[in-house]
Amino acid sequence: MYGFGVIIGIVIAGGRVYETAIFGFFTALFIQAGTFALNDYCDLESDIANRRMDRPLVRGEIRKEEALLIACVATALGIIFAVFLAVFLKTPILFLLALILAVLGILYDVKIKEFFAVSNIYIAFTMAVPFIFGGLIAEQGRIGTALLILSSIAFLAGFGREVMKDIADVKGDALRNIRSVARVYGVEKAKLITVCAYSLAVIMSVIPFFLSDTTYNFNFAYLLPVMVADALFVHTCFELRKGADIDYNYMRKETLIALVIGLIAFVCGALVRL
Fold it and tell me: Are 20 and 10 in contact, with CB atoms under 8 Å apart?
């Protein structure tokens, strides 16, 4: 999804060069793959406590040493592709941004995720930055209004999803003393913050429809699918406010589907006129 996020950023920004799209895709894919593999390595004990059977280390499919090797190789490949991209476009800022993201990913996995709300903000940032990265590839230094709005929506939705995940992971987070919103302020306030983040994302999704200088202006190819995504986010908000028997894994899947539909809406709005 991170790799496709870069490509979507390129498409929305009007880019049409396939070589740069490929380099951008693999830069994001490998850097984030390295970050996720290292995260599984560092979080094995808490993932076991949280019964995260979606993790291959928890299932025993690979050893910790193999996960660490994957993290190192994937991160190195991501940096190499970033070098190719920067040289091809003669835009050093792309390599610098990729390097910063790789370093932040390592620091996040090893230590800084234990600080209050840093985990939520970092993950939300990584969900937003692929679109900016793609826009920089296509426009080489300029970011359009539509991409800024898409990135903001991705940040808000990503932040909400991470706070919501922390509610379900309170037990395991205690093992690493991760100071999540749910652990510091309690589950109810964490739910309220999640609802606020999703609500802001829904409100912002309407803005492109009224932007006169974009392809989204009164474009129903964008509005119709984004309304479906918004409906899923609103449904999640109502479920969270019920306060009993909440299936957080289901809610995360529902909001992930909403994010994918939202991305489809932005692509449709950029390529189709209705």
Answer: yes
The Cα–Cα gap between 25 and 78 comes to 9
Cα angle value 74/78/81 (rounded, 5°)? 135
Question: Do 131 and 174 fall into the same domain?
Answer: no
- CA dist 99 and 107 (Å) reads 12
d(C-alpha 104, C-alpha 107), whole Å: 5
38: left (phi > 0), else alpha (psi -120 to 50), else beta? Answer: alpha
Of 98, 113, 143, the residue at which a domain comes to its end is: 143
**Average pLDDT along the chain:** 86
User: Same domain for 37 and 117?
Assistant: yes
Poorest-pLDDT segment among 6-20, 69-83, 84-98, 120-134: 6-20
Question: CA–CA separation, 35 vs 102, rounded Å?
Answer: 7
Rounded distance, CA 210 to CA 242, Å?
33
